Each structure stands twice: as C-alpha cells, then as structure tokens.
Amino acid sequence: MESSKVIVIGAGFSGLVAARELQTAGVNCEVFEARDRIGGRAWTGDRMGLPLEMGATWVHWFQPYMWGEITRYNQGIHTSPADNDAYWVTQGKVRKAKEGEADEKMMPALDVIYEGSDRFFPNPHDPLAILRDEYGADPNDVEAFKQFDHKSVMDIVNEAGVDQELQDMVEGFWSAAYIGDPRTGSSLMAKQWAALSDHSHKLVDEINLRFKLDNGMRGLYENIRDDLRCPVHLSSPVTKVEQTDSGVRVTLETGEVKEANKVISTVPLGALTNIEFDPPLSGDQQRVIGDKWNSTGAKIWIKIKGHHKIIAYAGADYPMSLIRSEYFMDDGTTVLVGFGADHSKVDLNSIEDAQRIMDTWDLGVEVIDSTGHDWVKDKWTQQVWATLRKGQFIDGWSHFIDSESDIHFAGADFAPGWRGVIVDGAIQSGIITARRVISQLREIGKL
Hints:
The protein is α/β, with parallel strands linked by helices and about 450 residues long. The protein has 13 helices and 21 strands. The chain has a seven-stranded mixed β-sheet. A five-stranded parallel β-sheet has the order 10-2-1-14-21, with helices on one face.
C-alpha cells in the first residue's frame, strides 16, 4: 500500500495533537512551525522568577479534552488566589468589596447575559445544531439565536435596563474574557460558555480563571512533542499551499517544496495572510480572514511591592480591564495578571504603563516589573485567542470546517467547543480534523 503523508502547519496544541493522532493511525506526517519554539499561543516563559504563561493559563476538569491530556501526562494543578479584595470603576469612582460580594453583585447582569443558553445549546459542543432542520427547534428560538449573534453582551444588559454600575462591572469582566471589546463581540459566545459550564457563572469563572498547571502549559506541550516520532521542524514558516492533481504542495520560506496527500493548517486566522493558497480560499473564508476576530486585546504580568490580594475591574476603554493577584513571592512582592481589550493602549514591558494601570483603582501600590507578549503584533498570530465579532458565531469559524479539498483547518479558532482563553478547543479541533483526514485517506486507499 502506498504510504500516506500529511503535513501539519503549526506546532501549537492543535498541531501537536493532530500529529499524534495521525501517528497513532499509522500516517506518515511532518510538522512545520514558523517559530523557534513549540506551543503556539500556549507559552510558558521564565520571567519574574516564575514560569509565567504568556498566553493560555487556566485548566479545569470541565475542559474534557484538556483534562484528558492532564491525566495522560500525570500533571498536577493548583489554585489561583481567591477571596481577594475587589475593586471596580463606575462613573469615574472606585468601589470596593470582597470578591464574593462583587461576584454576587454582578449576578443579575450575568443572568441576563446567559439567558437562553439551555435552549440554544442543549449540546454545547454542537453549537450550530439549532439551525439544522433535523434539530426541530422552536422557530422563535432559532430567530432569537440569530438575533443574539448580532448583539453584544453589553447590548443585552443595556436593553434589559441593568443599572450603570453593574454594566461597568460586567464590561470589565467581559473585556478580559473576550480579550477584546465586549461591545463588538457576539453574545452567543458568552451563552455557549454558560452552556459548557452547566449554565452556572460560578463554573464559568472557575473553569476560566481558577486552576493552573504545576509545571505550566509546557508540562503538556513538551510531553506531547516527546511522544511524536515524526519530525517537528522549527523556524520553518510555510509561505504557499497548493492543491495539485495528486494532493498538496507546500512551499517553505527557504524555497524548499514538500509534497503531501493532505495538509492540516493550525495557523490562527489572523496569520493566514502569511500563506498564499492556490487555488485561493473560498470567498467566505477570505471575508472572515479580512474581518479578523474580536481578539484585539492584551495580557500583562505586573509585579508590585508588598503582598496584596486584589481583583479589579474597569471598562473596555481603560488600558487593562481586569487585574488579579496570582503569586505571592518570598521577597514580599506580588505578581498579578491582567487583561485588556486593546493592545495598543499599553506597552506590556513598561513599568510606567503598568503603574498607570494599577493607579486606575487608586490602590497606592508601587510597580517594580512588568512583562507580557503582544500577540496582536506577533507576525505568527496577529490576534490573541479566538473570540468572535457580532455575526461571526454563525457566519465565521464554521466556513473553515469540512473542507472538500485536501487542505484542512484546525485550531482553537475553529473549535466547536471551548473557544477562547483556554486550550481545550485547540485539542478538540486537532483531534476532530486529524480523524477526518484519517477517514479520507482510508477512503481513497492511502491508509
């Protein structure tokens, strides 16, 4: 039997898992990664005397694909600090309470945002099922589903008459969750997160912001790579992918050409402009690439003097919209993590900018270090994690699924389940796409 070959573009979680799945089925494959490291937007870097996550951070047993990898590689987890002092900015004034009190205060607004999640997503890993005739959904629910794709979470709370203070609080929360402007993101993403979390905000918060890996994300992606027998080529950008009569031809930046039966691209949507596709991608795919996702924000790590238990919220127009304490150091300092809606509002490595961020809440703390990675400026991502603009939940990511050619797309950007700050969707998409490719190779007698 003729040996099959698949080229995987990208060595983030999705690419590495896809390669492992192919390898298990006996498929000959190669992985080409543009960067000089693996991991993609999951990147554990040694900074501030800690293994800090420049990208994805939190894990949970309600992330089914991630938990499978944690179990497979025997990784431990620990909690982020809780019961912090909570601060939020509303109408130019800083308010304060305990974290639990702030959470309870926000609940009426969050309940309004999540309303309908049970009807819209009875199976949250099949997010567009309600639109299929065989689903038999109530026509009113179908119409509401379509309308909510063109509304933001902030549109919902505003239309519901939620008071301004609660609007300001949830704007801070969703600026961080969307890593972009919550006023321009699809509200269906928030509703799907609720469905993936048993329709409980407590679980939404816990799944996305509570548990971290003892060895960092690299404790997983390095283990996955070590299980691969196929080559993983670093510093090897792909510049062109061509569909041929016999399969696919891939051109590297060096000019080297590789032939394959199939290609799986795990390149983030924002960076697909780095690759020339021949024939060109479909009109819908090109349109979505041109529009980009709602992922315009940034993540920052800030070190301050003293031990401070802080969680703080501010609106989307502030440099950072959510700050929370993560590590209390032996030298008496605290390391905090922060998220904002617009990467252009802050230099992540500027102590002065970090001090300006902390001064948002009149905390009286002194910043001594700041770090981060600007994913939007990064040539190989040009976005943060995949969050969707209004209209893109229905008319966006799904255009990259079920390819009729030999070129397939995988990654968190195109995952049916968890899309966003956590890695689960990347793993899910890598498995789904690899299995689809394996089935196609078997159908044509290549496996």
